[in-house]
Fold this protein.
Amino acid sequence: MLQKSCPIRQIIIALPIVVSNYTIVPTVPSGTVVKYPQIWNGIFLGKVAVFIDGGFFEKVLDGPFGRPKIDFEKFCDNLCDGSDYRLRTYYYDCMPFQSDPPTEDEKRRYANKQRFMNVVERLPRFESRLGKLGWVGGELVQKRVDVLFAVDLVRMSWRGMIEKAVIITGDSDFVPAVQAAKEAGVVVQLYYYRARRLHEPNTHDELLSAVDERYEIDQGLIDKSLREDKPGRLVFSGGVK
């Protein structure tokens, strides 16, 4: 039985709906008991999901910030600012291109990226979503990544799984998904970057206008997310080279 007086929610998964104060999470098998903090030191913690466009984020770290050694788990918790409970982080990306047969450099880049994605999957409350690279007009472009990102954001919002969504991206293609999440009652926060120089990543004005709150990815956020020498922590050093 569910006990409302208990500071830890115990949820029996049955249907993808919201019943009273309890969110029925549809992504685990029926009958699973899911536990997560509801109150910490007398303060209610809202549920937050972090959605990261890996291609955009890698470019931000790789150029303007000089490839700092980021503790990925600490970084995502810092985005929640201690006032919310990070339900899960979703990381969206593609594996690097490989020729047929691949060059030695392509093999190295692919292996490095594969190791990184494997570690992402092992972090507490992290999941990766991989699209594919394809040729369009003579250029390699990501495919399916935007769709995966948008589907997760809208799905979790309308199923009442989160109260807040933190997104890192610069693409205006996400505006309809942001608007749908807002209509479901979810507060959407954007962590953005504005290009200072040619060829730097940039956030589209339409996306900046669509979200509820916007915060710049600045040196302060980077500095407080830097690596500490702890075994088992994922270090994100700019792009995966």
Notes: The first strand starts at residue 8 and ends at 12. Residues 6 and 208 are 39 Å apart (CA to CA).
